[in-house]
Amino acid sequence: MSMMPPGAPQPAANQATSREFLSVIFRRKWLILGLFFVVTATVLVVAMSTPVNYVSTGRVLIVRGEQQSALSSNRQIFGEWEEDLSSEVEVTRSYPVLARVRELLAEASTKNGRKIELNPAAIDVEVMGKSNV
After folding, report:
1. What is the predicted pLDDT for the residue at 114?
2. Secondary structure, 3-state, 95-106
3. Nearest to 64 by CA among 79, 77, 74, 73
4. Rounded to whole angstroms, what are the CA distances from 9 to 3, 4, 14?
5. Cβ(79)–Cβ(65) below 8 Å
6. pLDDT tens across 17-54, in order?
7. Which of 10, 27, 108, 126 reaches 20 to 30 Å from 76, CA-CA?
């Protein structure tokens, strides 16, 4: 353990000043700018070469049953809800529905000039949990 004499100057702490920081930045400016431009160019190439896929999702609330009267909101339910909803799922996946969607997309593409393709394999319908709505 070394003791410093009482009047000796204290050693300066190693501390970087803002001038030293800026000098390092300016010395390495081409490295910093080069990395920035390489990353930017890579992102632009990937973004421009990736095909555009439009995705649409939605939820439909199906109110089942028949209303007992106009004065009450109670509904009488006939049959099993799983059977009703599975038939609705099959209708949504059916050919006539997909053909109508193709027609609507063809009309929209003639209006705005962009052709939008429909991938029937990407269409999926499911029942979101068991509920009694």
Report:
1. 80
2. HHHHHHHHHHHH
3. 77
4. 13, 9, 15
5. no
6. 888 888 989 999 999 999 999 999 999 999 999 988 77
7. 126
